[in-house]
Prior knowledge:
5 helices; 3-stranded antiparallel sheet; alpha+beta; 2 domains
Amino acid sequence: xxxxxxxxxxxxxxxxxxxxALVFTLLAIGATQLKEGWVAAIALxxxxxxxxxxxxxxxxxxxxWPANRLGLFRDRMVVVxxxxxxxxxxDNMESVTLSDPGSWPxxxxxxxxxxxxxxxxxxDFKPAHFGLEPAACRDAILRLRxxxxxxxxxxxxxxxxxxxxxxIVAGELIKPGL
Length: 178
């Protein structure tokens, strides 16, 4: 799946800078043991300090990154908030709004995006939890809903759960007792 946000590059940068920081620190300590090695120790120590700063910055970036994910696919949109996954087919979307559903006739704009679905209950989420601006997120979803040519450039949805066959669960016939 391709999600709007990914931590992969920050994690890679943080891990490589942490590795460099440890190596440079060990080399700087080893250089101090040599006679006349203080010049090399200063240079290696400066490199280690820079690598520690980059590693700390990457760690802060990973902790500040939104935990939620928003997936945009050719036939549907997937919203994952912690362990809760919501899906909406583009063809089933009736409304995408930032207004509070219960505020009619006085419309009140909120920071929650509400997606009304045909024959299914609507759901809402805060785009800010995904690192997105609410109005821009609403506009992007409306544009994708209405433009099939634009959606054709998105990847296809493929989930392991969709490929596995769920067992048929059937209960016993229950006669209501009076």
